[in-house]
Amino acid sequence: MTDNWKPGSTIELIQLRAKLLHEIRAFFYVHNVLEVETPILSHASGTDPYLEHFTSNLSGTDKSRLFLQTSPEFAMKRLLAANTRSIYQICKVFRQGESGRYHNPEFTLLEWYRVGFTLQQLMNEVEVLLNQVLPAERFPEKAVRISYAEVFAEYTGLNALQFDLAEYQSVAIKLNLPEALELCATNHANWLDFLFSHIVQRHLGVAGLCMVYDYPACLPSLARLKCDNPLVVERVEIFIHGIELGNGYFELADVKEQRKRFEQDILLREKQGAAKVTMDEHLLAALQSGLPDCSGIAIGLDRLLMVISQKKSIDEVLTFSIETA
Q1: Per-residue pLDDT tens for 136-175?
Q2: 11-143+208-317 in CATH: which number?
Q3: What is the C-alpha to C-alpha distance for residues 155 and 36, in angstroms, rounded to an integer?
Q4: pTM greater than the 0.85 cutoff
Q5: Burial grade of 175 (CB within 10 A; 0-12, 13-18, 19 or more)
Q6: Can you tell me the distance from the alpha carbon of 58 to that of 159, in angstroms, rounded to the nearest whole number?
Q7: Boundaries of every domain in the chain
Q8: Are the C-beta atoms of residues 308 and 130 closer than 8 Å to each other?
Q9: In angstroms, rounded to a whole number, what is the distance separating the alpha carbons of residues 300 and 103?
Q10: I need a surface site. Which of 4, 183, 204, 223 has the fewest CB within 10 A?
Q11: With 70 as the cut, is the pLDDT of residue 75 above it?
Q12: Residue 257 in 3-state DSSP?
């Protein structure tokens, strides 16, 4: 017998998590944002080339394969298309192969959508919410807001919006990252992700909340192209102490563009030898019906709890990590 049955989190942290969830729900109640619940299991999945899914079989055959959600995004957008107005959800999500200091394969996500909000308005609301839940004595300053191109140039000297392979390779060598040449090859998006994660991210949010917005168009995810600058998309990521807490967009509503991005993702997954996924036709039908203009964001609550409690590892804020579950 061992002590592995015991929770990895202290009673104080369990209470702090409960307090955080209460404060979030109270915030959205006051702001008239409806709490919703959507399925964890789905017949379709996201197509992100860099996410792997857990699956289950309803009757033991491949034809009955179900996916555990990596995000409630698609189901929530179906609700938005059905005129629910602004909504939020706190739920468990699952990502295969993600385990480490900041990752657990099962984690808690807060996701919300504000109908009629621009991305800047959503960023304002994110800052208000986080100011309420973060300790004021440790986070007294207003959030730093900086464009992706500005912060990328500051720490790499490179232009994030115009890809010059030779320049990127030269910088990688100067930064003692020769493996980037093979890993990224000629793919601009891969170069951006690699250099951002290895060089830029650790500098973000050192003194408090940092919001990086206007991502290069080659990193679109589910964001719209910016009307006055087609080189960027209306996307924002939230950082504190070099930790990514959230990812948000002015949401893509064009069904043709969404199908195109799904198809491109699936081709890239095949090229990389990733597991096959199923495009979500329900989401596409919802977009065809009409998604209202809205902005949305997802924030990892376990990481947020790490920041609030000043813990070094995600395992410290989980009642049971994947090793003891």
Answers
A1: 888 988 999 999 999 999 999 999 999 999 999 999 999 9
A2: 3.30.930.10
A3: 41
A4: yes
A5: middle
A6: 48
A7: 11-143+208-317
A8: no
A9: 10
A10: 4
A11: yes
A12: helix
